[in-house]
Design a protein that fits this description.
732 residues, six-stranded parallel beta sheet
Length: 732
């Protein structure tokens, strides 16, 4: 019997028993991920070794051992992951020192070749990196689908130093272990520390720890609190040990003796297991975080100490400035032992307050539990995975005449018949993906809707297939504009059958000039898109087409000038409604094709306003159709429609092509993840089982019906998001 295979996630970094902070982080994240995922998904590790001489006895979860200096092993790992569809994605724990080459550049041989979603956790973010380090980091930022940093400060630094990271960066704090809160007394007894006031620092020992400043700070502390005992837990860092042996520990011991603190300082020269470490932390009264590097992004040791419910005195670095409040501890300047003395004495001077700090630290860190951290990582990974194309629901919703408008759940509802709006967008999809049978149906539907004056009716009934009364009571301008766009997309696709292209050309030629667009800004934008595509296909009317484009562009720019009189409202109208992004998209396309910088400036200003309005808390939030968003009013949050993220992705794609600004590409990925659950309700709008898309996101969840508009909006989004690189290459 063959062994059952399961989908897998690959974790890349160091891993225990290698003694390294990143190894511990990787292990904690992986173990929590396993608990979160259950038995259906396997977690595997590619563990980095310093050299082939490393002989770590790894657990079975380590599938690959990679020599950090062996480029071929990195390349081979990428090939293995790319070639197997069961590998869903890769999570890389990044620290410059654990990967080979200058500034750890060898990791690029792996991540630049991966064709699966890649999440990179950047554990170190320097505000002033060397040129070499900056070049390596830029390539990592570009290759990763998603970037994780552990503090808000790191996010700000990363986005300032590496602007191409904007839209990719998410803040997920360092995890802490689930443990019951308890006062120090119980564990002091167990560890034979009764009647001592315990201060603790733990971690692999190196000169950057700044332990000497804590030791100096103890001189005035022990005068006031003679029962103080400072525990320094941890072996010397293996890399440091190879370079200088135990010289730093000896220097610290000599300092202790010189200051007559032998009764007040104790070194534990061992690598503690997690249960041992947690016991020592629970026996602690004050944890001392000692980093002397102001640019250090995060300290896992500080996170673990707070997570057990212990007050902290910490030097000032990125994480400590964010997490150490007066309610849980004190901040002191780096290398300032006098200030550290004052802070320790302050906390020890009020025992009831210190106990309240313990409880406050424990409460503060409950959102940082490893289970929560792992779930955030895996949700981001899931949102980076573009589901395989599934046309089953599109086929299910289509009969031999056209695409039905509505569905009851996933079952087509013929009661309301068909629309040219839905069939037009479906024609674009069928044409792009080579679904000739479906394309013929949708094109014939458009042909049936064509009327002598050159326009199109929108609604046809079932089963009579006749125009309905809605065509007389509703404005069909947008639907007609979308039909021209669909015909233009079909015409320029050389893979379509020439006879079908001929039909599409006739329909377009007989319709493009007769459409009355009135004041319809979105319809004008859609027609601009259509005319830009086909201007070379109709040489006999190319001049007229360009004149029409000029007129429509003038209409849109005039609308922008008239309505964007205030800096906080840079838009073409006094309200934001549906399908907003198509307006700046159309102007970007014209500006890019004509190299018109002033027009591009208007287009980017309006798109930036829309981005600022629609992207919140690392997810996309479409304007709700229950009231929309009137200038000076309240933005409606619901109901959110799939057409909106589809429109935004197309606009961001156009902006990326015109500017090559990676921010737009990153925002497009966030926008697409709206369909997969990265939204205000944290619920997938795409139905992975049926291949359909729910009809909208409401305040109480999703609208479970899976109609045509939501379906084609989703599929158009897939088409756009998967073809960024294709279009980028063709433009170069």
């Amino acid at each position: 019997m063959s062994k059952m295979k399961y989908p897998s996630i690959v974790f890349v970094g160091t891993y225990p028993p290698r003694e390294c902070g990143i190894a511990t982080f990787t292990q904690d994240l992986l173990n929590s991920s396993i608990k979160y995922l259950g038995a259906g998904v396997v977690c595997k590790v590619a563990a980095m070794n310093v050299s082939p001489l490393d002989k770590h006895v790894y657990p079975p979860v380590v599938e690959w051992e990679i020599d950090q200096n062996n480029k071929k092993q990195h390349i081979d790992l990428a090939k293995t992951i790319n070639s197997d569809p069961l590998y869903l994605g890769v999570i890389v724990e990044h620290e410059y020192g654990i990967y080979g080459g200058p500034d750890g550049e060898n990791i690029l041989y792996l991540i630049e070749r991966l064709r699966k979603p890649v999440i990179v956790t950047l554990h170190t973010i320097l505000p002033n990196p060397s040129n070499s380090m900056k070049q390596v980091t830029e390539k990592i930022v570009q290759a990763a689908h998603t970037l994780i940093v552990l503090t808000q400060n790191s996010k700000q630094v990363l986005e300032r130093v590496y602007p191409m990271s904007v839209g990719k960066v998410h803040v997920i704090p360092h995890g802490v272990h689930p443990t019951l809160f308890s006062p120090p007394t119980r564990f002091k007894t167990k560890l034979k520390l009764t009647n001592r006031t315990v201060l603790t620092t733990f971690g692999l020992l190196s000169r950057g720890k700044g332990i000497e400043y804590v030791i100096r700070s103890l001189v005035p502390v022990v005068k006031k609190h003679p029962k103080v005992l400072y525990l320094v837990l941890g072996k010397t860092h293996p890399v440091v040990h190879r370079q200088e042996g135990e010289s730093y520990r000896k220097e610290l011991t000599q300092l202790v003796n010189r200051l007559h603190l032998k009764r007040h300082v104790k070194f534990y020269d061992q690598y503690l297991t997690l249960p041992e470490l947690l016991e020592f932390l629970k026996a602690t009264d004050i944890y001392i975080s000692t980093s002397i590097n102001p640019d250090q992004a995060v300290s896992g040791t500080l996170s673990y100490a707070l997570g057990t419910g212990r007050a902290a005195v910490s030097t000032e670095f990125a994480q400590s400035r964010e997490i150490i409040t007066p309610q849980v501890g004190r901040l002191v300047p780096i290398k300032d032992h006098s200030s550290m003395s004052l802070a320790i004495n302050d906390l020890l001077s009020d025992n009831p307050r210190l106990k309240r700090m313990h409880r406050a630290a424990y409460t503060l860190t409950r959102p940082m539990l490893w289970t929560t951290v792992a779930s955030q990582y895996l949700k981001l990974l899931n949102q980076s995975i573009i589901p395989p194309l599934n046309f089953s629901h599109l086929a299910n919703m289509t009969d031999n005449f056209g695409l039905f408008q509505f569905a009851k759940l996933s079952t087509p509802d013929p009661t309301f018949g068909y629309t040219i709006d839905d069939n037009s967008r479906a024609l674009i999809l069928a044409s792009f993906y080579g679904k000739t049978k479906l394309a013929k149906i949708y094109l014939n539907y458009i042909k049936t809707c064509h009327i002598p004056d050159g326009s199109f009716v929108n609604y046809l009934s079932h089963p009579t297939r006749q125009p309905t009364s809605q065509n007389k009571t509703e404005d069909l301008t947008d639907a007609n504009a979308r039909t021209l766009w669909a015909l233009s997309e079909f015409i320029v696709n050389i893979n379509n059958h020439p006879d079908l292209i001929s039909i599409a050309k006739d329909l377009f030629f007989n319709s493009w000039s007769s459409l009355n667009l009135g004041q319809h800004l979105r319809a004008k934008a859609i027609v601009i898109k259509a005319l830009l595509l086909v201007q070379s296909e109709f040489p006999e009317i190319k001049v007229e087409i360009n004149k029409k484009i000029d007129i429509l562009v003038t209409d849109l720019t005039l609308a922008f000038t008239q309505n964007s009189t205030k800096p906080e409202w840079q838009w073409f109208d006094s309200s934001l409604k549906y399908n907003n992004a198509v307006i700046p998209e159309s102007l970007i396309l014209v500006a890019h094709s004509r190299l018109d910088s002033s027009l591009l400036d208007i287009a980017i200003k309006s798109l930036s306003f829309l981005i600022k309005t629609s992207f919140v808390n690392d997810y996309y939030q479409p304007i709700g159709n229950d009231g929309w968003y009137q200038q000076g009013g309240q933005l409606s949050l619901y109901d959110q429609q799939p057409e909106d993220p589809s429109s935004m992705i197309l606009a961001l794609k156009a902006a990326f092509m015109a500017t090559k600004n990676e921010m737009y590409k990153n925002l497009a990925s966030i926008c697409f993840s709206w369909f997969l659950g990265n939204n205000s309700q944290q619920i997938p709008v795409y139905n992975f089982k049926t291949g359909g898309c729910y009809d909208g996101l409401t305040s109480s969840g999703v609208n479970l019906n899976q109609g045509a508009e939501s379906l084609v909006s989703y599929l158009l989004s897939v088409m756009a998001i998967t073809n960024f690189n294709l279009n980028e290459n063709s433009a170069n």
